[in-house]
Design a protein that fits this description.
This protein has 187 residues and is an alpha+beta fold. The chain contains six helices and ten strands; from the N terminus they run ααααββαββαββββββ. The strands form three sheets. It has a six-stranded antiparallel beta sheet with strand order 4-3-5-6-7-8. Strands 1-2 form a two-stranded antiparallel sheet. The termini are far apart.
C-alpha cells in the first residue's frame, strides 16, 4: 500500500503509482481529467503574463537571473513614429524597436528568463502559443496591452495603464467602473 505524505492530495497515490514514485498534478490531470480541465486556465496565464510585463514596464527589471536590466520600452516607443513597440516574449523579437537598440538587445534575455518565471508562478511556458506586449507611449501617458493565446486557441488582450500596470477601467451602463474589455485582441 502506498502511503501519502501529510501534504499530498488524496489522488496522489494513483498518479504516484504510475510514474515510479514521482508524480505531479499535471501528470494526474493528463491521465484522469478531460482535456478542458487539464489545460491551464486562461486567466491564470494572463495573470502570469501581466506580472512579467509589469516587471519590465517599471524601468528596472530583475527577471533575468543575476542581472538588473534597465528597460526603456516606453522611451523607445515614444521615439518611434507609430508610438508603440510590440514585444514577443516567446520569440524574443520586437516590432518597432530600434535595430541594435536596448530593447532589441534585451528581448532575447527576457525570452530566456520566461520559462523560469512561469515555473515559479506554477504554469508551464508550453501553455502559451502567443505572448505579446504592446508598449504604448501616448499623449495621455504610458500604457501596455498584454495579448496571450493559450493552447486551446483562445486569444485575448487586456490593457494596463502606466508603468505601475493598473488595469484600465471603463464605466458600465450604471456608471460603475469595470475592467475594460478589449473586444478584439490586439496584435
Amino acid at each position: 500500500m502506498l502511503r501519502l505524505g501529510p501534504s499530498e492530495p488524496p489522488f496522489a497515490a494513483s498518479a504516484k503509482s504510475r510514474t515510479n514514485g514521482t508524480h505531479s498534478l499535471r501528470d494526474f490531470a493528463a491521465v484522469h481529467l478531460p482535456v478542458s480541465f487539464a489545460c491551464m486556465k486562461h486567466n491564470k496565464l494572463h495573470s502570469v503574463a501581466h506580472n512579467y510585463a509589469d516587471s519590465l514596464a517599471g524601468g528596472l527589471s530583475f527577471v533575468v537571473p543575476h542581472q538588473v536590466i534597465h528597460t526603456h520600452f516606453f522611451a523607445e516607443a515614444a521615439a518611434n513614429e507609430e508610438g508603440f513597440i510590440v514585444a514577443d516574449f516567446l520569440t524574443g523579437k520586437a516590432h518597432g524597436a530600434y535595430l541594435e537598440g536596448e530593447v532589441e538587445h534585451a528581448l532575447p534575455l527576457f525570452k530566456g528568463a520566461f520559462p523560469d518565471f512561469c515555473e515559479k508562478h506554477g504554469v508551464d511556458v508550453s501553455d502559451y502559443k502567443a505572448f505579446l506586449v504592446r508598449f504604448v507611449a501616448g499623449n495621455n501617458g504610458n500604457s501596455y496591452v498584454v495579448t496571450i493565446q493559450d493552447q486551446n486557441g483562445r486569444r485575448s488582450s487586456r490593457e494596463y495603464i502606466g508603468s505601475e500596470g493598473r488595469r484600465s477601467v471603463t464605466p458600465d451602463k450604471l456608471g460603475r467602473l469595470r475592467p475594460k474589455n478589449l473586444h478584439a485582441p490586439l496584435d
